[in-house]
Amino acid sequence: MKILLTIALRNIREHKVKTTIIGLIMAIGIMVLVVGNSFMDSAAAGIERYYIQNYTGHLMITGQSRGQLTLFGFQDMTAMERAVPRIPQYAEVVEFANSLPYVETINPQVSATAMVSRGDKMLGATQLFGVVPEQYQVMFPDNVELLEGDFWEPGSQGMLLNKAVADRMEKHVGFTFKPGDKVLFTSASTVSGMRIREAEITGIFEFRQSNVQLDMVSLMDISNVRALAGMVVGHAEPAELSPEEQAFLGTIDEESIFDSFDSLFAPTQVEEEVAGDDYWFSLLGDTESRDLSNVEDTGAWQYLLIRLTDEKYLRQAQADFAEFFSEQNIAAQTRDWLQGAGAMAELSYGIKNIFNGVVFIIAIVAIIIIMNTLVISVTERMGEIGTMRAIGAQKSFVRRMVMWETLLLSGIAGTTGVLLGALVLFILNRVGLEASNMFLEIIYGGPVLRPELSMSSVLTSFVVILIVGIVSSTYPTAIVMKTSPLKAMESSR
Amino acid sequence: MAIVELENVKKVYTLGKAEVHAVRGVSFSIEKGDFASIVGPSGSGKSTILNLIGCIDQPTEGVVSINGTRTEGLKDKALTTLRHETLGFIFQSFNLIPVLNVYENIEFPLLLGKNRPGKKGIKEWIEFLVEAVGLADHMHHKSNELSGGQRQRVAIARALATKPEIVLADEPTANLDSKTGQSIIELMKKMNSELNTTFIFSTHDRTIMEIADHVIELLDGLIVEDSKRSVEAGSIS
Questions:
Q1: What's the pLDDT at B182?
Q2: In this structure, are strands A193-207 and A159-162 parallel, antiparallel, or unpaired?
Q3: What is the pLDDT of residues A204-249, one digit of tens each?
Q4: CA distances from B27 to A476, B44, B57 (A)
Q5: Judging by beta carbons within 10 Å of its beta carbon (0-12, 13-18, 19+), is residue A302 exposed, middle or buried?
Q6: ipTM of this complex
Q7: Do A392 and B162 touch (CB under 8 A)?
Q8: pTM of this prediction?
Q9: How far apart are CA B138 and CA A285, in angstroms?
Q10: Are the C-beta atoms of B156 and B90 separated by less than 8 Å?
């Protein structure tokens, strides 16, 4: 072992050109890997921290549903065609959540998308989070920065308009929103139809930690958002029918209800005696049905956001809630913060995967270059290796010798790369990387990224360099193994 | 008892489409303790025979027995073990490991096998060998810091490190001036006498050949003379 290390170390020292070429490739590769991975880890940690602390909590409970349900609603092709499900047996779910020792705080929420208009001018769209200010501020105490006005009074209605939303709209209409202004919000979906609500702006705010998706979000009283989301007492959700009920309905078709299509054009017999005005006014004046369809379902929530005392309880919490839902037969489910965070957070993670793919390609290129250099190096030393074999070195000894040499070189170059990477990261951390555009903001998980050296990136780098080292030495070792001691010695003459 | 025995050994090399008959059917035996010389002009098959005895090449036909072990059919691992435990090599171009110093080069074969002697034993033995080959002052020099003669002395010490029964030397003086070559042969003879190690060396130098007590003369891959004679130790010391 000692002799292997001695030979390996001295060969590295003696063959300066080879050492420099391979060492540089490896060191630069590792530096890129460390910086890139730390960068991505920092961005991911940033995204996680910002989202958990500012928008999502660790966990969100929703009604059971398929598809990509986020805090912004469904983020797939079905978004307009189905309502975000309510949390069934909400009170029991809340009671259970509060009974768990690792649950720090909870915050119920409802989400809706609405067009904003004032007078006859359509100003643009905004995403609305329907919240209870007291609970929302306990859950996310740091993220709402009030620029003007304040939250609406408890029990009353109102909205906080996001400055980013206001800025976009103001560009179109040429006036400045201020607290006290009233605006109309219109939502539409194939499920709940079109709904219009007027709300008073009680304040203008901005999210301290924001991104392009959150720049669309304004906060509104729960009552108005429920109405815009179609969460009213008269709200009808698709009914699950028993086979008997379906069989019964099967005998009724549209024609039997509306008669045939031709009947629409059939001559109508007008009776002489028509109803008088009193009759029609009595019909139109009866708004009981319409009023019923607008009565807010006060116990209805789409999301229950949960912040845990520590992220380590995330899996336990998911398991406990799943068991509770199963035992109580509640059609609800948990989604972790990443699922709740929506497309932007997922996109950041997607970009990380792309980066890992690029790293994989770089590693393969590095393997090929290093392998070629090692082949040349080993060929140069055929005589030396042949001598060793002649005087009694087994193939395994030579294999280990080449391997040790590569691993030592990889280790030295890898450590150099890590140190260089750490230096680059230290500088980047001090300087801070500002996101100059939306794309970078998505990658950074916020407006400024201060990357830190992550241990996982260091470990990953050493694992990669180890694999690169082992794989690169495989081919040259195979060449040596195939060569007889005699040929090896002859080749050196 | 013969320590090396060759029975009708032939070796044919393929050189492109042509076949080169390097050894055409050679039989001889070398006794333990012999100081044997294989002589002949270039291309006579000296190096090929040494390579066959050294188990770094295999005969096309015939049997090579080393210390009673027939080498044909042995796997690489067994051949390597045989080389390590029974044979020592001295090469024409010295073939020292360039990154190791004198001490480490001599020590190297001792670190290869499974039955390694203790550290203290190794140190004392290497110091004895270094002293014996007259390189006590160059113990920590690397091969590129030594002259040709000094390098060959290191190679002799290395060949003797594992206390092999046979030492093979392929033209050990070819790259040395005549005076140094003479001293190297005398050193080998001294080791042969003191350690009773069998030495087999190839040469085309007739003056060096005179020191050998067993001379096998080759021409075009065949033995033309196989003679043994008594050489008084006193005359070469």
A1: 83
A2: parallel
A3: 999 887 777 788 899 999 999 998 888 865 444 444 455 665 565 5
A4: 39, 15, 17
A5: buried
A6: 0.90
A7: yes
A8: 0.63
A9: 119
A10: yes
Residue B187 contacts residue B169 (beta carbons within 8 Å): no
Beta-bridged to residue A144, according to DSSP, are A207
Query: Where does the pLDDT of residue A262 fall: very low under 50, low under 70, confident under 90, or very high at 90 and above?
Result: low
Q: Three-state SS for A435?
A: coil
Domains of chain B: 2-228 (3.40.50.300)
Mention every residue, 6+ apart, whose C-beta is less than 8 A from residue A382.
A480, A483, A487, A488, A489, A491, A492
- CA-nearest of A139, A180, A176 to A159 is A180
Distance CA B70, CA B72 (A): 6
Q: Which of A22, A26, A39 is nearest to A363 (CA)?
A: A26
Check CB contact under 8 Å for B99 and A11: yes
Check CB contact under 8 Å for B95 and A10: no
Nearest-CA distance A469 → chain B (Å): 22
DSSP A48: H
Q: What is the DSSP code string of A354-379?
A: HHHHHHHHHHHHHHHHHHHHHHHHHH
What six digits make up the tokens of A265? 């054009």
Is B80 in contact with A11 (Cβ distance < 8 A)?
A: no
Q: Is the dihedral of CA A53, A56, A57, A59 positive or negative?
A: negative
Residue of A nearest to B80 (CA): A392
Asked whether the CA dihedral A150, A151, A153, A158 is positive or negative, the reply is: positive
CB-based contact A489 B91, cutoff 8 Å = yes
Tell whether B95 is within 8 A of chain A (Cβ).
yes
Domain extents for chain A? Answer: 2-52+345-491, 65-235+295-330
Interval B98-145: pLDDT, tens: 889 999 999 999 988 777 777 778 888 899 888 888 888 899 999 889
Helix axes A343-380, A382-390, angle to 10 degrees: 70
Q: Using an 8 Å Cβ cutoff, are A62 and A90 in contact? A: no
Residue A370, Cα to own-chain centre: how many angstroms?
Answer: 38
Residue A185 pLDDT = 92
In degrees and rounded to multiples of 5, residue B11 shows phi and psi of -140, 120
**Lowest-confidence region among A117-126, A127-136, A384-393, A481-490:** A481-490
User: Is B54 in CB contact (< 8 Å) with chain A?
Assistant: yes
Name which of A312, A388, A330 is nearest A102 in CA terms. A312
Neighbour-count burial of B56, counting CB atoms closer than 10 A to its CB (0-12 exposed, 13-18 middle, 19+ buried) = buried
